[in-house]
Amino acid sequence: MSARGAVTEDAPPRRVSLMATCLADAFFDDVAQATVEVLEHLGCEVAFPEDQTCCSQPAFNAGDWDSARRVARHTLGVFHGDDAVVVPSGSCARMVDHGALLLFEDQPDRPAVEGLAHRTWELCDFIVRGLGVTSWPGRLKARVAFHRSCHSRGTRYAESALALLRSIDGVEVVPFGEGEQCCGFGGTFSVGFPHISRAMGSLKIDHVLAAKPDLLVSADASCLMHIGGLADLLAQNPQRVPNLQRPLERKHVAVVLRDALQAAAKPAKERA
Fold it and tell me: Is the four-CA dihedral 5, 7, 11, 14 of positive or negative sign?
């Protein structure tokens, strides 16, 4: 159980605020929708502040801390109150509960930043350690390779996601080589060092394909965007990637959890 307070079966529905992230807004709207469906399945009342923008990580990583503070202060205002803030991104969650503490280390509003950090959860971590749910219902027949994002290091995010994935009837989580290595995205790193980024991503794809998964799953849309785009590019050159005999299907963990629920709800004849 989390020190931040777990929700028991006897507790009333918990109100949470969804921080959807920039990437979900621009490219992965289904991840945000799946996150809402997953949280509502768990009995949560989900609020979505419509004036949310960004967690401030891009400016923070680029070294423009003045701009990052302006964005972060907007986020503080948007997510004021006492609700838990749930984020379907390990990267953004870590910015709010760790990076922002560095950003505001000598600022007068540091206590407000600490308050938001204390209430912010990565999605799977919230499910497992916040709500105390360690087994996921539903069914999904698939061999799954799970990519751990760099920002999940030093946290329990990946372990929480893996606990849920492994509990789904029909899911087999398959290991692959150098699973702890970066996919090569790194935000602005992929722009500043495109050749290194591509080489890192290609190596990641080689290891994933060697495990012959049906799905590549991650809790970070940014990693899925980078790996997926590179895999699609490499698919145009099958001689370069002999294991890539079909498109590399990838899904955010929120979508996998939602799909497992939907599959279980189908009549047995449709599931066969």
Answer: positive
